[in-house]
Amino acid sequence: MESLRTDAAETDLVSRSVPLSTPSFRAVLRDADAPRTVWSAPEEATVVGSGAAATLIADGSSRFSSIREAAESLFASGDVHAGTEAARPRLFGGFAFHADSTSGPPWEDFPGARFVFPRVQVTWTDGDAWVTVNAVGRDVDPDTVESRLDRERERIDSLRGPGSTAGPPGVTDRRRTTARADWRTGVEAAVSRIKSGDLRKVVLAQALDVDLAGTLSLPDVLTRLGRAYPECYRFLVEPEPSESRPQPSFFGATPERLVSLRGRTVETDALAGTTGRGETPAEDEWLAQELARDEKNAHEHDLVAETIAEQLSPFAGTVSTGSRRVKRLATVQHLWTPITATLDRDEHVLSLVEALHPTPAVGGLPPERALATIRETEPFDRGWYAAPVGWIDAAGYGTFAVALRSAVARGDTATLFAGVGIVADSDPDREWDEVQLKYRPILDELEREGDD
Predict the structure, then answer these.
(1) H or E element in which residue 71 lies
(2) Contact 418, 312 (CB under 8 A)
(3) How far apart are CA 309 and CA 23, in angstroms?
(4) CB neighbours (10 Å) of residue 227?
(5) Is 201 known to be catalytic?
(6) Inter-residue contact 206 to 435 (CB < 8 Å)
(7) Domain architecture of the chain: domains with CATH
(8) Which of 350, 304, 342 lies closest to 320 in space, CA to CA?
């Protein structure tokens, strides 16, 4: 494997693709080599990456521009025969939330930014499947890559079907990083700063450490998350394996897109304001209407939508904000506003990612004061939680989601993350309950019936 940092010298890139006989997602992911990558998004192809032909790594406040420069260098010498646009080679990865992330537990193996160029990439789109083999290095031989491609196609086509799925491993213990009394104190302090005019909004998060009765089967988890949350962005990113500790895996099914770029068309979402789902259709509709009418949630949401539009305005003469509406997911309902823009000039998707992150949906306003409040209040390192995860292609296009409803699994342990927006009339106990609700998509994949 060729490891590329931001000062990488020029290398050769060769990529070849051929059709497959539509293998199962779960079988391919189970068979994949570490580091594994998964990306699946509404109206996009589903991709599983196996191994790493190249890795891009950066840290600090320049991590976005450093990864952009390294990606452009990597793709500059590309010899690519994709067969279909969906199977084109892509980089997959993400960033830390804070520029000065400390990489404390469970983030020891996650730098400020890390992107993988998979050695083997399997893509599903419109009922078809493709395998792509990538190679990076000096004097890469295309004939050798094509021979590898033939072998990979035969191997993947021979994978057996999904078979029986492994259920949740069960939770044997859980430890909150934030006690309820400390949460009340933190929220009350934030509300006081908002009422004084020092802040307009801040997002505070919690982490939940759980011990499992067994190792989590991520192929099964991500398959079930895809069925339960088809409107969400599923992702899996892993660092290089280490001999000294179990392989960590950061995964989730997030409802929030940060940005997508195709040509000069930009799409993004404002997602803020949350309530639960009802036990009956009538109760569900009542909760949705209450959410839509709630002044606290509407104020929190509008701050996010207005700020995203402002952040896009330097790039686009036309920014269109849709009407606020309710987006229903399996366990929660959110206020959602779609936002689109047409760029004035060609841009790289990472330029937009850098401009938008962190949105007020995960950080706050004003940004620097909100980030300082988060640092002062949260007793853990966010790592990659609530940060951009996604993909980049050779044209500089891509899609990034905000890494919510997520967890880091390592062996028989996992750490879950969830947060809420705090505004002037926030109630600490109500916000606590919302955090517990947001744990559910991932916690449901860990707990067995009867777990406390």
Answers:
(1) helix 63-76
(2) no
(3) 41
(4) 8
(5) yes
(6) yes
(7) 2-157 (no CATH), 171-217+258-443 (3.60.120.10)
(8) 342
C-alpha angle with apex 201: 198 to 204, nearest 5 degrees?
Answer: 110
> Which H or E run contains 190?
helix 180-195
* Assigned token pair, 169: 């491993």
Confidence at residue 448, expressed as pLDDT on a 0 to 100 scale: 66
**Interior CA angle at 274 toward 268 and 276, to 5°?**
130
The structure tokens 């072998």 sit at: 151
Whose CA is closest to 67, among 59, 134, 142? 59
Dihedral angle at the C-alpha atoms of 331, 325, 306, 255, nearest 10 degrees? 30
Q: What's residue 176's pLDDT?
A: 94
* 217, amino acid identity: S
- The rounded distance, in Å, linking the Cα atoms of 382 and 372 is 13
Q: What is the DSSP letter of 112?
A: S
Q: How confident is the model at residue 296, as a pLDDT?
A: 87
List the Cα angle 300/306/309 in 5-degree steps: 140
Residue 150 per-residue DSSP state: H
Q: Chain centroid to CA 144: how far?
A: 34
Alpha-carbon span 76 to 82, nearest angstrom = 16
Note the pLDDT of residue 428: 96
Kind of pairing between the strands at 36-40 and 257-262? unpaired
**282-289 contacts, C-beta under 8 A, 24 or more apart:** 284/328, 284/333, 287/333, 288/326, 288/328, 288/333
Q: Which of 2, 152, 256, 354 is catalytic?
A: 256
Which helix (H) or strand (E) segment holds residue 253: the answer is strand 248-254
H helices present in 84-204, as ranges: 142-157, 180-195
Backbone phi, then psi, for 293, in 5-degree steps? Answer: -90, -15
Please identify which of the residues 201, 238, 434, 438 carries the catalytic annotation. Answer: 201
CA 199 from centre of chain? 27
Helix (H, G, I), strand (E, B) or coil at 37: strand
Q: How far apart are CA 136 and CA 233, in angstroms?
A: 28
CA distance 386 to 242: 25
Token pair 């998060």 is found at 205
* pLDDT, averaged in runs of 10, over the chain (452 residues): 46 91 92 96 95 95 96 91 88 96 86 97 93 92 94 91 74 94 97 96 97 92 93 95 85 96 96 90 93 90 93 93 91 92 96 96 95 96 97 96 96 95 94 94 79 52
Per-residue model confidence (pLDDT) at position 2 = 45
The CA distance from 91 to 75, in Å, is: 10
Q: Cα 22 to chain center, whole Å?
A: 25
Q: Are 179 and 388 in contact (CB under 8 A)?
A: no
**Integer Cα distance of 184 and 198 in angstroms:** 19
